[in-house]
Amino acid sequence: MRSTIAACAILVLLIGTVDAEQCSPGALGVSRTLVVDPKEHSRVGSMQYPETLPLNDHEVVLTFDDGPLPRYTNRVLETLASECVKATFFMVGQMARAYPWTVRRVYDEGHTVASHTQNHPVRKMSVAQAAREIEEGFASLREAIGDPQAVSPFFRIPGLLRQKSVEQYLAAHGDMTWSADFLADDWTRINNSEVARRAISRIEARGKGILLLHDIHPRTVLALPEILNEFKSRGYKIVHVVPAAADRPKTATSAQQWVARPTPLKIAQDLAKAHGWGDYDAEIMDTQAPQVSSSTSPEPMAATILQSSILRSLRMRAINWSCSTVCFRARRRSARRTSDSSFVELFPALAQALVQTPA
Ligand SMILES: [Zn+2]
Fold it and tell me: Where does 157-224 show beta strands of DSSP type E?
């Protein structure tokens, strides 16, 4: 009898341990693993490309750029482990050479290791420079882990400074260029609650997507638990993305599932360009997406972004109103462009563009 109780106790203990290793009961967890073939889809991320990952509603892919930096990457890893979720880390080769044990930890904990160049240049590169940055970057990661198979062929261009030549080079070498679907601006001078707020309001506006964060900033480390908590309470699921391999066939998807629905920001920018409002582009880029509820679709948001950009731009110009002919002309031009008729002209076009937008 006593031995049976002892055996049961051991069994309970063992099961407990296994559970803890797998996932704690309340953890967010990975809902599914998406296996992708870079040869079929060489560029993803609706912020810049016509295709993005084939996610279902309320699915999120977590990505971290610019590491590893042990001080912060380790804390990011701890938070991810506590919620039992997996992410993709776009690492810089130089950093991988400095902290190879952190690259190994990322890999050992089941995350996807991806590249973000060797030196993180934030300027346009010549093809030769780009090739060097790409090859050296991947080589540094392979060396840090000691297993070439451990590094995914996923790559993100620093600063999202897309270049056709670079994208073509990557595609020709079987690599997948990743942009993103939404940002949380965690590299800017905002605090951690603002990072979390932006991540949440933007996923709520989109409904799904690839989130770009950085594992080298304290504000990101501090924001991450709140972001994951909010994801959990709002019913979002984490998807882990890995490359297809001989023993790992790609997830079956239809071509339609990869078609990116443009973000409100993209819709606003495209419309501004199409209507010769190109000089508002900078303001549109700067305008923070307003907080929206989950029921808000991208279209009204695009309109709000356009309106607030234009109003802000007008305010800025008004400050400079005591000035020369150049200013005077600019003032007249902006007055004309923001006249009622202009808006009236703009919004049917907006409606038209939205009809053509794939759902
Ligand atoms: Zn970067």
Answer: 176-178, 182-183, 209-214
In this predicted model, what pLDDT tens digit does every residue of 325-335 receive, in sequence order? 444 455 555 55
Distance from Cα 327 to the centre of ligand 1, integer Å: 37
- Residue 95 CA to ligand 1 centre (angstroms): 12
> What are the angstrom distances between the C-alpha of 269 and each of 210, 279, 298, 343?
20, 10, 13, 15
Q: Name, of 106-110, 298-302, 303-307, 347-351, the range with top average pLDDT.
A: 106-110
CA of 66 to the centre of ligand 1 (A): 5
Taking the centre of ligand 1 as the mean of its atom positions, its distance from the CA of residue 185, in whole angstroms, is 12
Q: What is the whole-number distance in angstroms between the Cα of residue 83 and the centre of ligand 1?
A: 25
Instruction: Please state the domain extents for the chain.
Output: 26-258, 264-355
The alpha carbon of 226 and the centre of ligand 1 are apart by a number of angstroms equal to 23
Fold (topology level) of 26-258: TIM Barrel (3.20.20)
Taking the alpha carbons of 352, 357, 358, 359 in that order, is the dihedral positive or negative? negative
**Span from the CA of 65 to the centroid of ligand 1 (angstroms):** 5
- Average the pLDDT over each of 148-162, 184-198, 226-240, 267-281 and give the range with the smallest value: 267-281
Report how far residue 265's alpha carbon sits from residue 159's, in angstroms, rounded to the nearest whole number: 17
User: Which own/partner contact pairs does 308-313 have at CB distance under 8 Å and 24+ positions apart?
Assistant: 309/268, 309/272, 309/280, 309/283, 309/284, 310/277, 310/280, 310/283, 310/337, 310/338, 311/338, 312/283, 312/287, 313/280, 313/283
Q: What is the pLDDT of residues 185-201, one digit of tens each?
A: 999 999 999 999 999 99
